[in-house]
Design brief:
The chain has helices spanning about 35-50, 80-90, 110-130, 150-160, 180-190, and strands spanning about 5-10, 15-20, 25-30, 55-60, 70, 95-105, 130-135, 140-145, 165-170, 170-180, 195-200. It is an alpha+beta fold. It is about 30% helix and about 35% strand. Helix 2 runs parallel beside helix 3. The longest helix has 19 residues, at about 110-130. The protein folds into 2 domains: about 5-135, Impact, N-terminal domain (Ribosomal Protein S5, domain 2); about 135-200, Alpha-Beta Plaits, CATH 3.30.70. It is built from 5 helices and 11 strands, in the order βββαββαβαββαββαβ. The strands form 3 sheets. It has a 5-stranded antiparallel beta sheet with strand order 2-3-6-4-5, sandwiched between helices. Pfam families: Impact_N. Belongs to the IMPACT family. InterPro entries: Impact, Impact_N, Impact_N_sf, Ribosomal_Su5_D2-typ_SF.
């Protein structure tokens, strides 16, 4: 059985959505993110933009093969905001994504059940508005060889339709290629068997 080597995410942030419940306003945002620094950047910006709001609740998931996530209630009752938002990330099966729901309190308490439903709905609405795309899980390899072997290396790259990420073509050449995960072992073996050619994997930050 072939191991799954694709994942779903978003490339661009969709337009924010607005959900209203008993005079409270819930603004839903979604952003593509690859690290916690980018998460903090989006949160800081939204707190400035919505400085009069009461809560900035969020959830994010990072990674493709090794997953990390966080859900934050930001002062709402435990598990009434962050986890319902994260539940929608799981429901839509997306990763490398941050969803923030900004709440303006309308003077009427919603209760825990009402809050769960409101935060879930705002997260669902923004994900429905987002353009969700499928990407392949890729492995990057660095190939090191002398210039005299250029034709051999390039022939394999062209024949196997491999993507070149960057290259340094001098007396000692280095080419970084991107290989779909399901084909990675085969490609590694092809280059690894060749005399005077070194191939080694490069760890990708968002996987």
């Amino acid at each position: 059985m072939t191991e799954k080597d694709t994942y779903k995410t978003i490339d661009v942030a969709p337009e924010p959505v607005l959900f209203k419940e008993k005079n409270s306003k819930f603004f839903g945002y979604a952003f593509p993110v690859f690290d916690e620094e980018r998460v903090r950047s989006h949160l800081d910006r939204l707190k400035k933009e919505h400085h009069a709001a009461r809560h900035w609740c969020y959830a994010y998931q990072l990674g493709v093969e090794t997953i990390s996530y966080r859900a934050n209630d930001d002062g709402e009752p435990n598990n009434s905001a962050g986890m319902p938002i994260y539940g929608q990330i799981q429901s839509f099966d997306v990763t490398n994504i941050l969803i923030v729901v900004v709440r303006y309190f309308g003077g009427v308490k919603l209760g825990v059940g009402g809050l769960i439903q409101a935060y879930k709905t705002a997260a669902q609405m923004v994900l429905e508005q987002a353009q969700i795309i499928e990407k392949t899980i890729d492995i990057h390899y660095l190939i090191i060889f002398e210039y005299k072997l250029m034709n051999t290396v390039m022939h394999i790259i062209k024949e196997r339709q491999l993507d070149i990420i960057n290259q340094k073509l001098e007396l000692n050449c280095q080419i970084t290629i991107s290989v779909r995960k399901n084909e990675a072992e085969t490609i590694f073996d092809i280059f690894n068997r060749l005399f005077e050619i070194t191939i080694k994997p490069i760890l990708l930050k968002n996987q």
